[in-house]
Amino acid sequence: MDFGKNFIWGAATAAYQIEGGAFEDGKGLNIFDTFCQIPNKIDNNDNGNIACDHYHRWKSDIALMKEIGLKAYRFSLSWARILPEGIGKINDKGIEFYNNIIDELLKNDIEPYITLYHWDLPLALDKLGGWRNPEIVRWFSEYAKVVAENFSDRVKYFMTINEPQVIMVNGYQQGVLAPGLNLTVPELLDAAHNLLKAHGAAVVTLRTYAKQSLSIGYAPCGQFNMPLNETPEDIEAARRSMFSFDDPYKSVGSLVWYNDPIIFGKYPENEFALCEKYMPEITDSDMTLISQPIDFLGHNVYWGHMVSSSDGMPEIVSDPGGFKNPPHKWPVTPDCLYWGTKFLYDRYKMPIYITENGKSCLDEISQDGKVHDTERIDYINGYLKGLKKSILEGSDVRGYFQWSLMDNFEWTYGYKDRFGLIYVDYNTQKRILKDSAYRYNEIIRTNGSDL
Ligand code: GAL
């Protein structure tokens, strides 16, 4: 059995992590352009000024995608490259850059999947408060209009926002990513509510100005948890742990805080009760805007917790075992794709795309000039086996995007952390297809039938 004939095999990247060209052709500054200049925020004080130089190498990079056999490519647009001040004047060079990429992808039969926002807020808007300012609903909608008008004649698939959880927790709560804030719970809940409204407004705007019928979703994250034992109690505990939290501090990092309002039109009941006293004023029209119908649910998955039931309550098993790779030290837990997609589909009954999944390794070029990333191959095989099982049991999963197409600027970890199917030598910008790229090619060609 394979994944079904329409299954989409892809790979993903994000603008700030690969493009470079940070100060070229009229691009405006974004919050990472300045955050990375603050000493010791990023390993080795790395930054994305040049990154993979994709801004100049997009054409040969697309040729490599073709060589891997990708059916789809998920990438994000740099908001400040298109609208240097976030709103107002459009930068034609930015539009041209993405037009070139879209045209070249289509010429190579690779379907573009565009993310509007992957964390690189225009600096001009951050200065006005960023996601804390309710005006962001209008700003994001204006940007979505420009995107729809310029690209939706050829692009059908859009995601509004990548990982609201990380935007809020890492950027606004713990301050380890741009813009580096340490907000209180009420401030966070307010910003997250603005973000949800901005998502809804972008959905409406994309559809209003679209030149064809679009398929729209978003790409959250959050644990994909697994039962310790396959008993009904542990299975329910794992499910529950994925869709609940017990402390307002955890709200903006959870999955349900975004998925439930977007899909069900209301915040999750028990969790809302916990947070209510910290919440901003919420109106019915807010919830209508937030829950504008979407076509699919994305989910970024790297690993999950093992969960057991303790008197009906979920208990996280402290060490699920498995290999923990440096520098992230994330455990390798292949079954999370099986359980997570099942739980997700059971709850939301929506088509799912795995919008990111992958493994960082300390890859090196061997004597033979190749990159033998056997750990990554093992990871991909294991995770995809789990995904296949879930699909065969009825979960409606439409596609899978490997994170990442190529090694890139891995946020706090800079360049030492390598997630790519393609190795990038940052001194020469030379690319080498890793062994995992060849394995992925085989999986795509055979539609996963040997998994
Ligand atoms: C995700 C993020 C990506 C990438 C990945 C690996 O959270 O969306 O940009 O960095 O993690 O850490």
Structural account:
The protein has helices at 15-18, 31-35, 54-68, 79-82, 92-107, 123-126, 136-151, 164-173, 185-209, 232-242, 256-264, 269-275, 284-290, 335-348, 374-392, 435-445, and strands at 8-12, 72-76, 111-117, 157-162, 215-219, 226-227, 297-300, 306-310, 313-316, 324-325, 330-331, 352-357, 397-403, 422-425, 430-433. It is globular and about 55 Å long. It contains 16 helices and 15 strands. The model has no long low-confidence stretch (mean pLDDT 97). It starts with 7 loop residues before the first strand and ends in a 6-residue tail after the last helix. Helix 8 packs antiparallel against helix 9, helix 14 (335-348) runs parallel beside helix 15 (374-392) and helix 15 (374-392) runs parallel beside helix 16. The strands form 4 sheets. The protein has an 8-stranded parallel sheet. A 3-stranded mixed sheet has the order 6-8-9. A two-stranded antiparallel sheet has the order 10-11. The protein is an alpha/beta fold and 451 residues long. The relative contact order is 0.14. 39% of the residues lie in helices and 15% in strands. The chain has a single domain (8-446), classed as TIM Barrel. The chain binds beta-D-galactopyranose. Beta-D-galactopyranose binds next to loops.
Q: Topology of this structure?
A:
Elements: E1 8-12, H1 15-18, H2 31-35, H3 54-68, E2 72-76, H4 79-82, H5 92-107, E3 111-117, H6 123-126, H7 136-151, E4 157-162, H8 164-173, H9 185-209, E5 215-219, E6 226-227, H10 232-242, H11 256-264, H12 269-275, H13 284-290, E7 297-300, E8 306-310, E9 313-316, E10 324-325, E11 330-331, H14 335-348, E12 352-357, H15 374-392, E13 397-403, E14 422-425, E15 430-433, H16 435-445
Helix pairs in contact: 3-5, 7-9, 8-9, 9-13, 14-15, 15-16
The structure holds beta-D-galactopyranose (GAL).
Beta-D-galactopyranose is lined by residues 14, 17, 162-163, 166, 221, 300, 356, 403, 410-411, 419.
